[in-house]
Amino acid sequence: MEVKTMPKMEKLQNKTNFCFQQAEDPAVHLLYIYDDVTAYGDWNWNTWEYEESETSAKYFRDQLAAIPADHTIELHINSNGGSVKEGVTIYNLLKQSGSKVKGIVDGVAYSVAFVILQACDERIMGVGTTALIHEPWVTASGNARELRKMADDLDVLTASNRKIFLERSSLEEQQLMDMMEAETFLTPDDCLQYGLIDKVEDYGYAQNGATVEEMQKRLQEVVQHMKAAKSFKEQLEIMQNGKKPDTGKNSKEPEQKNTLQGFLQGFRKGE
């Protein structure tokens, strides 16, 4: 029985799966999970076998084995979720790795992908990202006895997943149970409030919000740069053509200067 925790929506078609990449710092290793977490890859009609899945626990294990324990792992996630078996195994492999793991949600972290994030020492969600928590589900067939057993098995899996979220969050168990039963989508601020992540990262957008004085200074720097460039161009024309720059009535410099001055004055007044 293959149990999945993917939300009830169409699977992503873009197959940017799983990638290990060396960062500029040789002690930092970049990992990307950008697809559904599965034990098997696509079916190969030439070999009549499944391709190796780059989001399987086995593949993950092999790659993690090559990373020294004293190095740092930066895990980027954009995944709808997938197999509970594979995802929980990846969760435990990360916990066992001995490396410091920094998890970053770049897009979505749904279902078991959000479970994997909980294995990270530092859990970060970017602005505009979302998470989803819900109970595992399965497509099943069988007689009444077999279906009842599958339901009991799902209860065990659900309880096990709850333990992972409760380990570091501020949620009460009943509150978490209600949220999972309702298939709850969460914003980064929601996750931060519930202790499901440690930080919401704006990647410098807030710091780049300049004050009026800073904007005026930047505009003045641009004006000076433009004047310097114009002066250089005029000097170059003099050297090439032996002509003086145009300073007559047709010159547009005074008009440009007045326009910029007016803009700066209006900017100071908040117009």
Would you kindly provide a written description of the structure presented here, covering whatever features stand out?
With 271 residues, the protein is an alpha/beta fold. The protein has two domains: 184 residues, 2-enoyl-CoA Hydratase, Chain A, domain 1 (Alpha-Beta Complex); 58 residues. The protein is 42% helix and 20% strand. The chain has eight helices and ten strands. The strands form two sheets. Strands 1, 2, 5, 6, 7, 8, 9 and 10 form an eight-stranded mixed sheet that branches. The protein has a two-stranded antiparallel sheet with strand order 3-4. Strand 3 and strand 4 form a beta hairpin. Helix 1 packs parallel to helix 2 and helix 7 packs antiparallel against helix 8. The longest helix is centred in the C-terminal third of the chain and has 30 residues. The radius of gyration is 28 Å and the shape is extended. The termini are far apart. About 10% of the residues have low confidence.
Order of helical and strand elements: EEEEHEHEHEEHHEHEHH
Low-confidence stretches: 6-19, 247-258
Kindly report the CATH topology of the largest domain. 2-enoyl-CoA Hydratase, Chain A, domain 1
**N-to-C span:** 66 Å
**Helix/strand-derived class?**
alpha/beta
CATH C-level category of the largest domain:
Alpha Beta
Query: Over all CA atoms, what is the radius of gyration?
Result: 28 Å
- Estimated share of beta-strand residues: 15-25%
Number of strands: 10
What value does the average pLDDT take? 80
Looking at CATH, the homologous superfamily of the largest domain is 2-enoyl-CoA Hydratase, Chain A, domain 1
Count of the domains: 2
